Amino acid sequence: MALDETQHLNSLGFAKPPSETRVVVAMSGGVDSSVVAALLAEQGYDVVGVTLQLYDHGAALAKKGACCAGIDIHDARRVAEDRGFPHYVLDYENIFQDAVIDEFADSYLAGATPVPCIRCNERVKFKDLLETAKDLDADCMATGHYIQRKMGQNGPELHCAEDASRDQSYFLFSTTPEQLAFLRFPLGHLPSKDATRSLAAQYGLSVADKPDSQDICFVPNGDYASVIEKLRPGAAEPGEIVHVDGRVLGRHDGVIHYTIGQRRGLGIGGLSEPLYVVKLDVDTHQVVVGPKEMLATRTIPVREINWLGDAPFESREAWEVSVKVRSTRPPREAILRPLSPTTAEVELLTPEDGVSPGQACVFYETEGTRIFGGGWIWRGA
Is 120 a residue of the active site? Predict the structure, then answer.
């Protein structure tokens, strides 16, 4: 039956009262998702909170700065109790290990610089958890991500957050149109994180002053290498630090301790020119260094593309877009040339330093806020 055009849509876009609209809220235990849950409960929605246990949190109870640890499960449960809606904890440890941690380790060992938070969104939160939400007869699933979902002529579109400093679009490029139809992001329009914390205080949430998570949840203190050594014993094989001209400049304790573009901590001081890591050769256990200009990249091969444009990806020979090649960098103008439905070549109009395999390349509207998807940077054929 067609909807009556005169029917008013509620704030989540459904033509029925909030009390008849069930929304599953993915609760990490942090302030953002807690505010989303409290906000929707306050508006009268049928809220169900769900928290994922992603790894053995026994050792992480005292660890600050990462989500999904034991203390965070406790915080999420307390918010649900205080606001009067049901809350469930789902054990996703095996799924998380298979879909995120193992690939992270293998990718890192192959000399790439992986972004596991994207894979977690893609393969766990927006896949398995989203299906669980549907099993709970939810109309939609809401998260605390800072990104906007707007209705366009051809359906829902993904747009950058109002607060550019909080925008999480880089980590959500792989959200499919089908997932986007089911997802809601109630914080994306807020002007700042202070506005979120103000709402948390307004609702009397115990997590109102809780610090933001900084690290990847299973990488304490950002120490990637120690995690890789635990996951893959023997991975830190020593080798040579070699100049691009072939000179051996020193030794290292394992390729996993280095990243493309790194300058500090190389242990090869006393040289006349500053040197940067320009290549990690896993097969020969070599860390290759060279002058900064060798980091400049203009052409980037991209694969596993998720396209969110209105027209089919291959309907044009080239798309004029802006791209981000790291989460911390601003979008740069580029030409996107499709090679297949899921592969492309990106030509940067201005070369970028330190483009690294394993990072994401995210496509943006050049004049505007829309995200057209993205893909994964690789070394090429």
Answer: yes
